[in-house]
TrEMBL record:
<feature type="domain" description="Alcohol dehydrogenase iron-type/glycerol dehydrogenase GldA">
    <location>
        <begin position="9"/>
        <end position="152"/>
    </location>
</feature>
<dbReference type="InterPro" id="IPR034786">
    <property type="entry name" value="MAR"/>
</dbReference>
<dbReference type="InterPro" id="IPR056798">
    <property type="entry name" value="ADH_Fe_C"/>
</dbReference>
<dbReference type="Pfam" id="PF25137">
    <property type="entry name" value="ADH_Fe_C"/>
</dbReference>
<dbReference type="InterPro" id="IPR001670">
    <property type="entry name" value="ADH_Fe/GldA"/>
</dbReference>
<dbReference type="Pfam" id="PF00465">
    <property type="entry name" value="Fe-ADH"/>
</dbReference>
<protein>
    <submittedName>
        <fullName>Maleylacetate reductase</fullName>
        <ecNumber>1.3.1.32</ecNumber>
    </submittedName>
</protein>
<dbReference type="InterPro" id="IPR039697">
    <property type="entry name" value="Alcohol_dehydrogenase_Fe"/>
</dbReference>
<dbReference type="GO" id="GO:0018506">
    <property type="term" value="F:maleylacetate reductase activity"/>
</dbReference>
<dbReference type="GO" id="GO:0046872">
    <property type="term" value="F:metal ion binding"/>
</dbReference>
<keyword id="KW-0560">Oxidoreductase</keyword>
<feature type="domain" description="Fe-containing alcohol dehydrogenase-like C-terminal">
    <location>
        <begin position="166"/>
        <end position="345"/>
    </location>
</feature>
<comment type="similarity">
    <text>Belongs to the iron-containing alcohol dehydrogenase family.</text>
</comment>
<keyword id="KW-0520">NAD</keyword>
<dbReference type="GO" id="GO:0004022">
    <property type="term" value="F:alcohol dehydrogenase (NAD+) activity"/>
</dbReference>
Amino acid sequence: MDFVYNANPSRVIFGAGSRAKVAEELDRLGIERAIVISTPDQSGLAAEIAKAIGGRAGIMYPGAVQHTPVEVTESALMAVSSVRADGCLAIGGGSTTGLSKAIAYRTDLPQLVIPTTFAGSEMTPILGQTEAGRKTTVSDPKILPETVIYDPELTVTMPSFISGPSGMNAIAHSVEALYAKDRNPVISMMAEASIRALGGALPTLMDDPSNLHAHSEALYGAWLAGVCLGAVGMAIHHKICHTLGGTFNLNHADIHALMIPYTSAYNRDAAPEAMASIARALGTVDGPTGIYQLTQRAASKRSLAEMGLTEADLDTAADIALQNPYYNPRPVTREGVRHMLQAAFEGRAP
Ligand SMILES: NC(=O)C1=CN([C@@H]2O[C@H](COP(=O)(O)OP(=O)(O)OC[C@H]3O[C@@H](n4cnc5c(N)ncnc54)[C@H](O)[C@@H]3O)[C@@H](O)[C@H]2O)C=CC1
Ligand SMILES: O=C(O)/C=C\C(=O)CC(=O)O
């Protein structure tokens, strides 16, 4: 057995109520005047946490938006300078974490992240940002948050149309980790455990959105998924979601949730060990079928047509997806991708 395992160093505090440790963790990082980042929708939660840390909250910045536009980062950097902030405290989903990472990438300020969705971004040294309508991705050790507090009491406020797709976004990280070119036994173990935890928790969350035990399980799965995403390379699923999301400005989690049955089915015959691992985790005979069944419960959008795409858009997407070659277990051909997109357009079982 030959492999390389690269661990991304970060400190993780996990547990219901663990947000009570924010002040202690800021002290540990030597942060005295944080920029407190959130989306506008989550400014109330950010204000509550800021109140609990007193003077360590240097300035509030409730302006995070999806896909990390560079203009927003520049405005946040002015807020950083205005109080000479010495660290970032991000409270929210992947969009909020993205802004914190964008600041850290440019300033090397330390980051404490409190995730409130299952996106997994907090565990990766990857930043996607948008400039002039174009989204690009960069990876750098400065981007990786130093400390992450996972408090499942903070994910219970997600309505199921956000929590379901967000959980499927995490599952997609783990699925692709299982057939990554640079996979290794530790990450594969985490990926299977992540799919098991999320696959068990998501149906419960759809029926009972405030079930704290299920949130804890899902957040645990999301943590593992984030570790997987940060440690190994992704393939056709992440590439096609990046293309579809960026080109047609689609919601990030919704497009991941919709596409993962089809992308995993694309690789079904080329990655049998990964498929067996997914099937074991979900308790099904076939991995992609198990994922499809899960999306029927957890995804908010069930077809590319429902997301507003046309068949002509599928041709555009297939062309773009073929532009930059990348590793995938099954060769990426235009015909194969177009066929896969057609099935997703119609929302039929893969
Ligand atoms: N670089 C990386 O490793 C990764 C980056 N991302 C990035 O993250 C972004 C998407 O992040 P998501 O978490 O999917 O969505 P998001 O952060 O945009 O949140 C979606 C909506 O849900 C709200 N929300 C978040 N948590 C909530 C809660 N607990 N209760 C009620 N409302 C809540 C937010 O205010 C927002 O309106 C994209 O820009 C994506 O590219 C996502 C995964 C990995
Ligand atoms: O697609 C994902 O879920 C993983 C990575 C990114 O979203 C990169 C980014 O756009 O921040």
